[in-house]
Structure prediction request, 506 residues.
Amino acid sequence: MPGSAPETSPENARELVAPHVPAALPDVPGGDINLIPASALVQPLKVTFPLWQNSLPSVAFPERVRIFLDDDEVAAKHWTVHPIQPEDLFVNIPSDKWANRQGPLVLRYDAKNWSGDPDNPTQSYPVTITIDTRPPILAATSKLQFPPDILPPQQLTAYYLEDEDKVRAHLPAYTTPKVGDVIAWYWDRSLSGTTLGGTKELNAQDYDQPLFIDIGGDWIRSQDDGERYVWYTITDRAGNPPSGLSQVQMLIVKAQPHPRSLPPAKVVEASGTGWPVRGTLEPTDATGGVNVILNPASELYPGEIPQVQWGVARQLGAYLADPISVDEWKYKIPKEYMAPHFGKAIPVVYHFKDKFGKPHESVPYTLTVLNYPANRLPAPESADGLPLSLDKVPPEGASIVLRRWPFSAGQQRISIFVEGIEDSSGKTIRYAALDKHEVTPAQAIAGIARGEALMAKADFLSRIRLGSQLTVKAYISFDNGQTWNGQAAPNPASAHLPWLKVTLVA
Prediction:
């Protein structure tokens, strides 16, 4: 029982049980002993004790109890009627006797029964009580101290809460933390609000450590987003009125979960102003490759490094780009990844993993890459002169050459067909000098050289009517044979590269 346990056990009947203060709070580990609450100190403090031995008071032989605080007599009481009733075994200490006392005090009493020696009364065991009338005093700068990821710019985001789903705010040191102090923190839309967020009671393990409160994500989200004001008060275990409110910390809360805003990227060289979801790219504008930039509105957090996926991953012409400029999130797509997409629409996205390893991908930007214009491509040429003399054509055939074309690359395909009027039938016949030929690395650099594309002399040229024109038609597949200028196969009715007209003479 608070206030009743003697500091040592009685050893003989002359030693009285320690006094008891009914108002004293229950002891807590590490806290003040027999702490008297502030509410009990607005009136005389009641002290009780058990009846002593051989009690037989009368008017002639009264009995007496004296109360001592730190050896100062602070109250006394006499009895002249026998028997003393149990409910009368108390003494009230007047408030002026303890008004200027603080901290732990030794409380005891002595008792003289009807036959006792007034100069040698029986002593009680002492007991410690604590009086604390001084409330905690907040620091001059008393704002809650939030993590640097939040202050500045005072923004508490859903991203921040993803880690531990709470925010920890530290309290500036105050005077003087004790076990049982209660920190009450408030979270409100208004500076004058009264919304209590929670409380924290200090214990023996934390009262002398740096102090903090944890504000849970559920609470933060339950209070919606917007400007919020946070402050606290501290009340001690004795219940003294707080010395005041702390200074207020304003937060901009953006804690409601929502999908990331990851708008489309943009190809700088493509058509379209602002931040469109699609664009068109002229191949002639991509001879040095292209640049991709991310929309500044993209929700990217520290430590996240997006990569740009050009085209469909693991397909021909796909490229995964790392940023060349983190400040602007700028990416370079090399020239060699342009040609496989001529005449097609491809997705351009950026993606990354967040700090938990969860993947995120942007809204796609759809890029239409036009075919390379035919009039900007080289025409095939006759290596054996114009007009072409049949007599001067070597036995292996006449050579067709083709200068290096824009965006040439190994593994592209090239077809060269020659058409002419057959002398015997008067009909147009066709000869394949190259048929879906895979371009070699050397040809990608130098073009089609002499002897690499031949019009056969015996099988073709000798059958052509002299004086008529041969038509040389060349086709390039920039996507390694998948398409031919937008067609599934070379279209002899349309010019891909400019046609060559050659007159065949004797």
